Amino acid sequence: MERRSTCSFASRRSLVARAGIVFLCTLTVAAASEAQQAPGNAVRPRLDLTRMVRLTRTVPLAAVTPAMAENIGPGSHLIIDIPGAGTFGCTANFIWASGATRYLGAAGHCFIPEGTTATHGPGADFNASGVRVSVCVSNCSFGGESGFTLTGDLVVLGAVAYARQTAADGDIGNDFGVVTIPAALAPQVRPSMPVFGGPTTTEEVAQFEPLCHYGNGVVVGETFVTMARVGVAGGSTPSYWMGDLAAAPGDSGSAVVTCDVNGTDVRGRGAAGVLTHLGVEVGAQSGFVFGTTIGRAIEMAREANLSLALVFP
Predict the structure, then answer these.
(1) In this structure, what CATH number is given to the domain that contains residue 129?
(2) In this structure, what are the phi and psi dihedrals at residue 8, rounded to the nearest 5 degrees?
(3) Start-end of H helices in the chain
(4) pLDDT, tens digit, for every residue of 171-217?
(5) Total tally of structural domains belonging to the chain
(6) Alpha-carbon gap, residue 96 to 18, rounded angstroms
């Protein structure tokens, strides 16, 4: 296995706050085999919120203002209630379109129970009609010293249109889902990334290049300096990508983009994928993470007769 250090942001395993962004620097590892790139013990970073203290309020669609609707897009907090399974927290990725309908993306495992496979296509074994997905549009706050408290104003989204999750044996790259955005909210969605801006195109994850994401992952009693994080790409296959990024439970589904770094100025450039799995260093905030590529996500959604395309700012 080749080891190569190319990051100039800070020392290995350090997090340095610059202009509201966490710059993550580690020793980038070029994996020698696909098995090493996609470890079977990778963990889905969906956050179990079943026992949270819930101080949210649901806002009627008619009461949503344009300013509040700016939070419906990449990086939004998602609260998913799955009947019989519990309540889970994830992070939204991109705005997607199929025909005139708009969708908000996440990881597939955000929308279906553990042990199930998909809502559509081969092995489909779950009807998601009872799943309720809410998005936090303002005053959002997650975390807590001794437990998990959630505050904010929520809007209820529409039906889960598609979801498939990676199998327990670690077939990274088969994890993606979308939820319908009600037509009343479609004109108010925000396709751009928080902090970074963009994306303006679709790009592959190339080794040793800067990689950015904005997530809502937390560790009880400890939080990241910021939700906007920069790391180093580890490469990709047609189905999945890998990278060295700060991540934790709650980051599942978040948008990953290629980015340009100029000093403390970081700009989002190309939609690269969906963050779905933490690597072997599951006890730490930083380490290798994995996810589904944009091309693979589009291919998967065809199982539900969706012809998805990214909506760019």
Answers:
(1) 2.40.10.10
(2) -115, 10
(3) 34-37, 66-69, 294-301
(4) 899 999 999 999 998 777 899 998 899 999 999 999 999 999 988 87
(5) 2
(6) 31
